[in-house]
Design goal:
Elements lengths: L1 E7 L18 H13 L7 E4 L3 H13 L7 E3 L9 H8 L7 E6 L3 H9 L12 E6 L11 E6 L1 H4 L3
Helix pairs in contact: 1-2
Amino acid sequence: MKKLTLIRHGKSSWNYNVSDRDRPLLERGINDAYLVAGALKEPIIDAVFSSPANRALHTCNIFLRVLSIPSSELRIYDELYDFSGEYVINFIKSLDNKFNNVVIFGHNHALTHIVNMYGDKEIENVPTAGLVELNFNTLEWSGIVKGNTQNVIFPKHLKND
């Protein structure tokens, strides 16, 4: 069995004159990341990967802190700075099979595309700081096909507005 957890970066700010990769999180993005990370129930994680974008890395570091995972466990890959999903899918299919439980921090529309392509539950949009876990009945990442959408945690599910 392989488990893939996809997490979209928190809400980012457009108020700074910086490149897309350097955009920071808004306070709401930080708060939502803490909220969703706190809702995870003692996950087993073999590897954590992130896009190099500031907003993805900041979101990832919040999750690492909340889940008591050393930051030395984080691996950053340029191909995860992808919006179509093509590079992320290739990355997933090339993962080392010694990893059974993988977390990837990335971007939309890539993540929504992947959860709908490989999950069994239609999700219109993975929101900022949204988390979706997919389980696959395979021993090899290269062999993943349609799996099960196991866990969906979106910030709006956790708020009492």
